[in-house]
Design brief:
The chain has about 160 residues and is α+β, with helices and mostly antiparallel strands. Helices cover about 30% and strands about 25% of the residues. The chain contains four helices and six strands; from the N terminus they run H-E-E-E-E-H-H-E-E-H. The strands form two sheets. Strands 2-3-5-6 form a four-stranded antiparallel β-sheet, with helices on both faces. Strand 2 and strand 3 form a beta hairpin. The longest helix is centred in the middle third of the chain and has 16 residues.
Length: about 160
């Protein structure tokens, strides 16, 4: 099985998939990898649920924990999931506020994937009795995807942020 996965990695030029996992303990957007979308003739959502996200508070250096939800409508590139896991792990010793983490993730993914639409939602566990759930999205300018992003952002409400 390992030999078959290695052949797949070589064929697609992916560095992480099929190879021994090397964890990077400082933020590194270069860990993200893509592969070609084979279904560019239709729109569809890809969703990732990442329940083990950790980062550090930039002031107290205390750990913050979250589930990060990423949804996107691909254009030409797809996000390779193992590289996403390693990328998110690289935030482990990174000091940023919750809102900054979500926006960094969004910006990195938009720059890499050039998707039609992408959203990132962080469901951070309470600290000091307060939960913070930052949300950011993107849609290609002057298209229905920008309209979709604006609609989605303006229609978030409490049901989107339930415990």
């Amino acid at each position: 099985m390992q030999q078959k996965i290695s052949k797949i990695s070589q064929k697609t030029q992916l560095k992480s998939l099929g190879n021994k996992t090397k964890y990077i303990f400082s933020y590194d957007k270069n860990l993200l990898e893509t592969f070609s979308n084979k279904h560019t003739d239709r729109d569809y959502f890809v969703k990732f649920n990442c329940p083990e996200f950790t980062s550090l508070c930039p002031i107290t250096n205390q750990p913050d924990f979250a589930t990060i939800y990423i949804s996107y409508i691909p254009n030409l590139k797809m996000l390779e999931s193992k590289s996403l896991k390693l990328y998110l792990f690289s935030f482990r010793n990174h000091g940023s506020f919750h809102e900054d983490c979500v926006n960094i993730i969004l910006n990195d993914l938009v720059n890499l994937l050039e998707p039609k639409y992408l959203e990132v939602y962080g469901k951070f566990t309470p600290r000091g009795g307060i939960s913070i759930y930052p949300y950011a999205n993107y849609g290609i300018k002057n298209t229905k995807y920008e309209d979709m992003a604006n609609y989605r952002l303006s229609h978030l409400d409490s049901k989107d942020f339930k415990e």
